[in-house]
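As the next step, I wrote out a protein sequence along with its fold in token form, included below for the reader:
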Amino acid sequence: QVHLIESGGGLVQAGGSLRLSCAASGRTFSSGAMGWFRQVPGKERQFVATITWNGGTTFYADSVKGRFTISRGNAKDTVALRMNSLKSEDTAVYYCAAGQIAGRAPQSYNYWGQGTQVTVSS
């Protein structure tokens, strides 16, 4: 079993920056993809970004491309999401996910964190 723990959420003004972190514990997870999704009440979980096991390939949602950067730690069991130029529409609960495929669909991932709230005030 892999446990994912997110940190770094909070309240920020529009135009500001935040950095989310996610660490995997339990069974070592270093050979799969890790990603970030977000969700607001009443809506489906939305893909944000994903990164392959070696950090060599990344994919982003169009809505965050150029503003967000996903990266992987040297030990490959951590992932970070640097969020710049934040907008009010980025407000959501952000979830870390881990799986075998760096896909855009939630079904690509087997493990999920508990989520961390990001609130952007306008």
